[in-house]
Amino acid sequence: MTYTAPIADMRFALEACADFWSLRARYPDLDEDLLAAILEGAGALAAETLAPLNRSGDRARVSLVNDVVAAPPGFREAYEVFKQGGWQGLAADPTYGGQGLPRSLALAVMETLHAANMSFALLPMLTLGAIEAIEHHGAPDQKALYLEKLISGEWSGTMNLTEPQAGSDLAALTTKAAPQADGSYAITGQKIFITWGEHDLAPNIIHLVLARIEGAPPGSKGISLFIVPKFRDEDGSRNAVRCIGLEEKMGIHASPTCTMAYEGATGWLIGEENHGLAAMFTMMNAARLNVGMEGVGVAEAAYQKALAYAKERKQGLVIIEHPDVRRMLLTMRAKIQAGRAICYACAVAADGGDKAMEDLLTPIAKAWSTDLGVEVASLGVQIHGGMGFVEEGGAAQFYRDARIAPIYEGTNGIQAIDLYGRKLLGDRGEAMGRVIAMARDAAAQSKDPRVAARLGDAATALEEATDYMLSAERNDALAGASAYLSLAGDVIGGMLMARGVAKTEDAEKAALLAFYAEIVLSRVGSYLPLIKLTAAPLAALT
Amino acid sequence: MTYTAPIADMRFALEACADFWSLRARYPDLDEDLLAAILEGAGALAAETLAPLNRSGDRARVSLVNDVVAAPPGFREAYEVFKQGGWQGLAADPTYGGQGLPRSLALAVMETLHAANMSFALLPMLTLGAIEAIEHHGAPDQKALYLEKLISGEWSGTMNLTEPQAGSDLAALTTKAAPQADGSYAITGQKIFITWGEHDLAPNIIHLVLARIEGAPPGSKGISLFIVPKFRDEDGSRNAVRCIGLEEKMGIHASPTCTMAYEGATGWLIGEENHGLAAMFTMMNAARLNVGMEGVGVAEAAYQKALAYAKERKQGLVIIEHPDVRRMLLTMRAKIQAGRAICYACAVAADGGDKAMEDLLTPIAKAWSTDLGVEVASLGVQIHGGMGFVEEGGAAQFYRDARIAPIYEGTNGIQAIDLYGRKLLGDRGEAMGRVIAMARDAAAQSKDPRVAARLGDAATALEEATDYMLSAERNDALAGASAYLSLAGDVIGGMLMARGVAKTEDAEKAALLAFYAEIVLSRVGSYLPLIKLTAAPLAALT
Asked: What is the mean pLDDT of residues B261-266?
């Protein structure tokens, strides 16, 4: 697979759209040259080391033999290059060897890894979650024990939430934690869908595991978070946790999705007893944003592949000359740019301490960008024609890989519930009101009257929809929540692109925004009937 | 896999929506009892014989060893059941053993086969194409030689169009036909993507092959159609055609997609010299409608699977109680019912000799229903959550299988060009004008004021869009053609459902139509900016 990090597009999204340099005061050592150097370095890693393993990893898959999961050929060497480059610790605490750079910059780096090799990138993504959980919730001795090795990439991390009977419903989980005399807990239970839960790329794996301490209250208020290292800290002995199965999946074949058995494994409580969900949400929020970025990354890879094919493939004309093919390619490109801007803006909000905006944008970044990943990957298949359906063509893998992103880290339906229930109701629409005002502002400042009109109307539609959601009965609002999220993403993506265009003289980006306004913003009003769909007609389903 | 033919839904679509009984005078022997018996018989074949092989066939795949392609285990026995049931010849000429029933009824039968096992159903679907080509274009001796054995299912048929350098652009094909002393032609060339081009389920395979007779004019006016039997008619000896490779595809794993090498194979001209494309279009049109039906079939199977899962899976509540899950399920169900009605109506138009309506509806049935197949299969995956991405869950296969349908038999982009260039311009919008009038009529007769309003507005939008397409510059029209097709499909699906509801007292179908009006018809106006997209902004793509 050939992939080139779209550095100009990334910088436009980060600097112009997402207002990255509003962070300048917080990161005085960071300047344009360093930013460029980091993105170029990441781009080189992605293009030269990871992309060449994308298709071979898909074919080779992973295997479980005698409790050992073998990564596909080449992954060990690639992980070594990744580790040596210091990429894992880009945004981590310098006390433990991190570089203390903005998370938004680390996210942009992750975009290139996701694009080049989604299966591979899941490994650092999960480790990042473990780092953030321990940074935020770990006791000093836990930080000392784990952070340095995780941040250097020597060890990797996992998140263990799901159980066979408890998917999105964490309150139902049953994994047990029995207190031991030495202060540790014996963890017993089974976890499923554990990404990179077992592998041979790192000498130790640090599992973050949700479980119930004996006697804890039922439901979500009785869940605690534990650190369960594959090899015990005390003596380096093998802990009683092992991978007992791998899922056979439709995509991301090169990443092991493990069923993990905990059989009285030694675990250490992290954070407060029975407050495990809150701690897990630290990981989840970062992971959700990263999954959104995955959607953008895989879409970018699919776009590049389709564009190259369209320039080379003749059907009468070279197919890129066909208006319908151009329409598809531009749709891909415009939506990718919007999704990228949303994800980066969410991370910049996090870096800038704008918690309300980070919270608001997280479910949108996750769901909108992963829907986009599937849509764009499907368009990529379509542009390839018959070769799109044939695995050799390369487009099919993106379509298969992209499909997981709307599901994991909370399905997109759950993101919509989160946007409505926690975020919108949480501040009675205040943060969304800021977004609407920004969209109005961007519309007013646009030099393109069509864009100004489309974006202005879109802002009004978002306002109407927001007012409705805030006043609707809960079940009615839930029936329209997914459409509301889609509408919000459409508008926010357009607003961010318009902000970027206003700051630059980039004619191609202005044309892309105009196209986005015509094909996306022009349609947002039509979401209103879907958003206002009440629970009543849903009773028609029997 | 569990699948139950949705006979009530099928009959509603066929009889109430598509006005099947308008054909009564043409088929005096056909009555409701026979119709019911045929659909129930097909449903039993699909459910009991084909559906159980769907997942096993996906896993087993097909293999090519020493020029022989082995079908997956169980397919031989299933094909025997299919053959013995006389299903292949349902709509074929009684002179050669067919049953002379309406093609629309045969299409409904095919729906159940596509739904139960898309890979399997491709075999009779391709044979059907060969039967129709020979019925329409064959000389009497060719009919005598081939039809009986094809109609009985003893032999199977294929369509050989695509070559490595010529996909959608048939004018570029280079396979040669050299005249021989005995009146036959020696066919030499390579064809790709030949579905069921080689297999071990039938003792002979009749290939219909496009090729150029030596000295024929270049381009599409120099193409002739040939019959190339795997075993020669004269002496039963093996013809010089063989499968030299199978594609590794993302889906429909149980159907071989062959690269066929013709090395001076004996072929017989069918139809007139240099008029091969016209003859091929006889097959193509039937095949396009059948591919549309495939989209509906795989969507129905995905829907049934998702519905069953949603009723059984708990996440707090049984997940079907979640408004967002109900919304997805109802969206699937409503769109399936619309797509089914469109496909059936197209076939009823063909049976009734309404050529203009058949021609108009064919590209819409193909493209709209196959887009629907992908969308619904993707929703099915989403409803399954993590289990949707795991192959064991069964939803993933539908998502992989469904993805070919928008590609083959002319990509959906080509269908949109056909709808605009051949159909709309061909009669200056007359047939579409009839459709618009029917939609207005159905709106006026609806007892549900919301449906009446939505459908009336949708008819107006279709009229506006049609007027635009008829007057636009060609390249501008082509830029909006796909959106125009989507709009037309949305409206026609709603119109047909409304006609059906008006004729029955089926409250569930009335509720489904109301839902369709709210989530689909309410949005059709928003296609207008996409349809009116001109070629100019597409220049932004570099």
From this structure: 98
Nearest by CB: B479 against A327, A522, A541 = A327
The string of DSSP letters for A261-294 reads EEEEEEEEEESSTT-HHHHHHHHHHHHHHHHHHH
Instruction: Tell me how close the Cα of B320 comes to any Cα of chain A, in angstroms.
Output: 9
- Written as six digits, the tokens of A122 are 């899941």
- Torsions phi, psi for A20 (to 5 deg): -55, -40
**Average pLDDT score over residue span A161-170:** 81
Helical residues (DSSP H) of B384-473, grouped into ranges: 386-389, 395-402, 412-418, 430-445, 449-471
CA distances (Å), origin A59, targets A53, A141, A257, A302, A349: 10, 42, 16, 18, 39
| Helix, strand, coil fractions of chain A, as percent rounded to 5 | 65, 15, 25
Does the predicted TM-score (pTM) go above 0.80? yes
Please report which residue ranges of B97-190 form alpha helices under DSSP H: 103-116, 118-137, 140-142, 148-151
Give contacts of B 83-142 with A, CB under 8 A.
none
Phi then psi for residue B164, to 5 deg, are -50, -40
**3-state DSSP of A31-60:** CHHHHHHHHHHHHHHHHHHHHHHHHHHHHH
A183 burial (CB, 10 Å; 0-12 / 13-18 / 19+) is: exposed
Contact (Cβ atoms closer than 8 angstroms) between residue B461 and residue B521: no
Examine the residue annotation and report whether B273 is marked as an active-site residue of this protein: no
The closest CB to that of B479, out of A323, A525, A537, belongs to A323
Q: How far is B487 from chain A (nearest CA, A)?
A: 13
Among A531, A439, A440, which Cα is nearest to A494's?
A439
Considering only CB atoms, A537 lies closest to which of B162, B511, B525, namely B511
Contact at CB, B533 and A519, closer than 8 angstroms: yes
- C-alpha distances in angstroms, B372 versus A259, A519, B522? 34, 20, 17
pLDDT at position A255, please? 98
Considering A409, A473, A508, A518, which one is annotated as catalytic?
A409
DSSP A237: P
The CA distances from residue A110 to A292, A515, B427, in Å, are 11, 27, 54
Indicate whether B190 pLDDT > 80.
yes
Does A399 touch chain B if contact means CB atoms closer than 8 Å?
Answer: yes
Q: Which residue has the tokens 């000295």?
A: B215
Q: What is the DSSP letter of B352?
A: T
How far is it, in rounded angstroms, from Cα B229 to Cα B239?
7
Token match 């636009």: residue?
B472
- Strand locations in B180-336 (E): 185-195, 205-213, 224-229, 241-246, 257-270, 314-315, 317-318
Residue A284, pLDDT > 80, answer: yes
| Interface touch A413/B479, C-beta < 8 Å | no
Task: Kindly state whether A193 is in contact with chain B, defined as any CB-CB distance less than 8 angstroms.
Answer: yes
Q: Give the tokens for residue B505.
A: 């007292």
Residue type, B456: G
pLDDT band at A360 (very low <50, low <70, confident <90, very high): very high
Q: Is the confidence metric ipTM above 0.95 for this complex?
A: yes
> What does the pLDDT average to over A255-278?
96
What is the separation, in whole angstroms, between the first and last Cα of chain A? Answer: 46
Counting one residue from chain A and one from chain B, the pairs whose CB atoms sit within 8 A come to 216
pLDDT exceeds cutoff 80 at B316: no
CA distances to B138, B159, B280, B312 from B134, in Å: 4, 12, 10, 49
- Which residue, B75, B67, B389, B54, is CA-closest to B252? B54
Chain B residue numbers with beta carbons less than 8 Å from the beta carbon of A194 are none
| Cβ <8 Å between B389 and A250 | yes
Tens-place pLDDT, residues A299-331: 999 999 999 999 998 877 889 999 999 999 999
Looking at residues A193-211, what average pLDDT do you find? 97
Q: A381 and B412: CB-CB below 8 Å?
A: no
